[in-house]
Design a protein that fits this description.
Blueprint: H1 8-30, H2 35-54, H3 59-71, H4 75-90, H5 95-104, H6 113-124, H7 140-149, H8 160-172
Helix pairs in contact: 1-2, 1-5, 3-4, 3-7, 4-6, 4-8, 5-6, 7-8
Amino acid sequence: LYAVDANPVISLMAEESIRALGDALPTVVRAPDDRDARSRALYGAWLAGTCLGAVGMALHHKLCHTLGGTFNLPHAQTHAAMLPHTAHYNHAAAPAALRRVARALGGDDAADAGPLLFRLNERLGIAPALADLGMPQDGLDEAADLACSNPYANPRPIERAAIRELLQRAWEGRAPR
């Protein structure tokens, strides 16, 4: 939603994707045989994949690629654990985009996006802590350095101290703030 090459059509698709996945996934986890919920999840995943292929990446993908590639963390779980934190990191610099995320998840303010994503992960039973995924605490400084050394375009400047703090919260599994 805040990619430098975003456009109105992709932004609508992204918001609809978040809404569909946020609605469907808790049901899929609770009732895996619910065909309607699985269909809505597939619809949301298709929209998300289409968006992903149409625009550039930002901080979230940079951090996840760093964590997965350097520390061999599992791909999907790392993305899920990091998304609340990276959304929160960018909420003041990309308020319209993060307001759309919040709206799709039942909130209305850009600052709600990260906490709402964190709560969705809790409802889905997704491990919130990078530590639970195998991230060594003594690797947090290296991860922050790597993420800052060759950053992707991002609405908020990539600041090493803030990234290190973000990684610490994610490592501990604490909600973004």
